[in-house]
Every structure is written in structure tokens, then in C-alpha cells.
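User: For a reading group we're discussing how well predicted structures match intuition. Take Long-chain-fatty-acid--CoA ligase. Before you show the prediction, I'll give you the sequence so everyone sees exactly what went in.
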Amino acid sequence: MNVFDYFFDSIKDWEKPFIANAKRRVTFNSLYQNSSRLASFLSREVGSQQNILLVSPNSEYFITVYLAILKSGNVCIPLNQGTEQENLNYILTQTESRIIFSVPQLKLSERVPDSVSVLEEKDVEQITTSESPVETQPAFDPDRTAEIIFTSGSTGEPKGVMLSHGNIMANTDSIIEYLKLGENDRMCVVLPFFYCYGLSLLHTHLRVGGSLVLNNSFIFLGSVLNDLKNYRCTGFAGVPSHFQILLKKSDSFKTTQFPDLRYVTQAGGKLHDVFVQEFVSAFPKVEFYIMYGQTEATARLSYLPAEEIRRKPGSIGIPIPGVELKIIDSMGNPLPAEKEGELIARGKNIMKGYYRDEKETSVTLKDGWLHTGDIAREDADGYFYITARKKEIIKVGGKRVSPKEIEEVILGLPEVIDCTISAQEDPLLGESIKASIVLDKNHDEEKMRERITKHCSQHLALYKIPQSIEFLKSMELSATGKKIKQ
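Assistant: Thanks. Here is the predicted 3D structure of Long-chain-fatty-acid--CoA ligase, as C-alpha cells, for the group to look at:
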């Protein structure tokens, strides 16, 4: 089945709005009709299984184009609007894309070769008023590639994660099941759709007939709080920085009532326990789901049930429905409970591979298992804990140190908004520990250094205490809201 037909299986005739805060009424039916018409155009003019770029902020336009590309049997490549010219050129060359959907303000027609056609919102509006909807394709192969999502590669060049129609359907079903989503759910979306976490919000709420509130300006915290209240959102999804900023930078967030908010989800990196507990203490009736995943897994691999948030602090939870997780040693042998090793995963949501990169694919996918590159352990109850990324482990005088442990301790100080632990070269130890810290307001830096060092000495072994402490004015965030390590 084509994932488009899966999404609209039971809701294509609904006149209910899908985008709750759109300037014009965007119903399920109008979205279905417009996407189908654009898909008809693409089938005729482009064919099928061609790579098509989509560069746009979250909007009705993005959703319409994205769905149309999937429906036409072509491959969607959603990109960050801030993609550097060098990476754009690389992706265009790698994918041999000859068509880009974009918005006027990005002026992509001036940045790409003449051989590449750029279609903007006005072009899509003309097409959707003149075309007839394309029909359902019952014999469609779900293993066909639906999208390629580019992520940062270890060599500096972006890696294209190939996800099939079947991958998307499998992950969508799993997320709907464990979050218990239904047609009355309304998600406040601050995550961009070019990011797999953001796309999962689009996929799940479309499938169940829920709705979205699009907010592209998280930097204005007041607008987010207003959207949560005014549009009666039942859900909010964010990466760690979103929750850190809401809890530490907003004067009113923790005292504001959100009577319709049923649950929040957090993924995209570890939100340290101090922030999790601060949130659940402020909003005891809101279900808090910690989740873990990778683009290579379509989005999601595990979740911590909301009722376990206090009993299993620091855990990424249990496998989502349809996914297996296990811990292995360096030889690939399964490890027993409480032993640290690499976390690997298997399920129908695991990617097809990296686009035109057999070497990286063979390293990451082995015998049907995704090798995540994360060091983890499983407790006696079957709950998993990420200890560190393989590449993040710091070796101080031969001793292995996980940055997360030190960050957790420093974040226990109320003045600290954010802490990043990194390695720096050391002539005696090989590597020593550096702490980069963001404070909630202006403090005497020398006094704070003393306070942080004393606090660490009370909670950490001597070799884990940072040798260097620097203070930053603010967190540097990527377009997905993830923290950029300095």
C-alpha cells in the first residue's frame, strides 16, 4: 500500500479542519483532493521513483507537497531551509534531483542550476485547480522508497537515510498505539517537518484524524503558551532544549494552567532528570513520555510509559510495539541485564539503508539489526538506559567517563540552565574534562566556578571533576531545536 492511501484510509471525506490555526480552512478532504491533484501532475510530468526536494517551513504548502510526492510514487527529500549552499549542491548532485518545491523567500531559483525546476506556492495553487485527482494504487509495493532524510555524516558529508512506505506505516502504527492517539487529539507542533520527529507528528495525527497547531516561532515563548491554551492542544512534543527553555526562561510557564493538555513527549537527546522531575512536579496530571529513536528507525525505537517516569529515572523505557532491542558486546554477543554494550534494534521501521553508500549501510545494518552506536544497559525489568554515545566517551588517564553523568550533577544546581561536557587535550591524561555552562542570569563567574567545583567534588569521583569551566551566554540551537555542541 502507498502510505498516502494508508493515511487517508478512513478520513479522506472529512470536512473537519486538520490544521487548527490555518488562516484558511484546511480540511482532511481539501488536503486529500489538493495532494491527489498535485500527485497527478507529478505522475505525468516527472514519472515515478524520482527524487524531489522539498524546502519549506511547516505549512499547508509543505504538507500538500509532501503528501503529493508520496502519492505519486516519487521520493520526497525534505530539507532544512537553512541548508548551506555546499550541502545543497552535494545533495542535488547525489540525488540527481531535477525538481524542487520551495517558498519565494528562499530564492532557490537563484541558487540552483538552470536544469533544476523550482516550483513555489503559486505554481502549486495553479496545478491543484486544473488537475484531476490521481486514483488509488492497490498493488503498490510498500518497500519502495518514500523519502530520503539527510543527517550529519561522520565524514562531514550528509548521509541520506532511505525510508520506505512500509517503514512509515509501521512506525506510525506503533506510536499511535503506545500514545493512545485518537481523532480528538490536537498537537502543538514546534518541530520542523524536515526532521523525522516532526514528521512523525504529521503522520500520526493524519492517520487518526486528529489535528495540528503549527507554531514556527518557538523563540517567542508567549506564542507557544497562547497556542497551547487558545487552541486547546492535547499534546506537545519537544527536544531537550524546548523543555529547558520553557522551565528556566519562561516566568509564567510552570504557573499556567493547560486544562486540555493530556500528554507531552520528549525525544531528540537526553533531557536530564532534574528537568523531567521539575516538569512532572509542576504538571502532575500531564502524562510525560520520554522517547528514544533515530532517523534510521523512521523516528521511534523506545518509550518510557508515563506512569514509570518516577520509578525509572533516566530510562529510555521499553521497545515500542513491533520493535526488538538488545545489548551486545564488541563481538556481537548478547549481554545479560546490567551489562553495558551497544544497543541494537530490529523491526519493520528500520531504514532500507543509506542512499548510495553501501559501506556505511553495511556498518550500520547487520543481519537485519540496526547498530545505533549508543552504549546502553538493560535492567532486570527490561527497561533500557543510554549510558553514552560511542564517540562521546571521554578517556581520562585511561578511565572511561560518560559526559551525561557529569552534566546531570551540574544541572542539579538551580542557577544552571544548561551544561555540556566535552573532552579537551591534556598532555598528562590524554584527555581532560571541560564544562560549558549557561546560567539563568548574571552571576559572579569566579564564585560560580567555585560552587560548581565544590558541588562536583561532593557527587563525583576526582577524575570526573571538570578541569576547565567556561560560561556561555546562551545555548546555540540547530533548526530542529537540538543543542549544538561548541
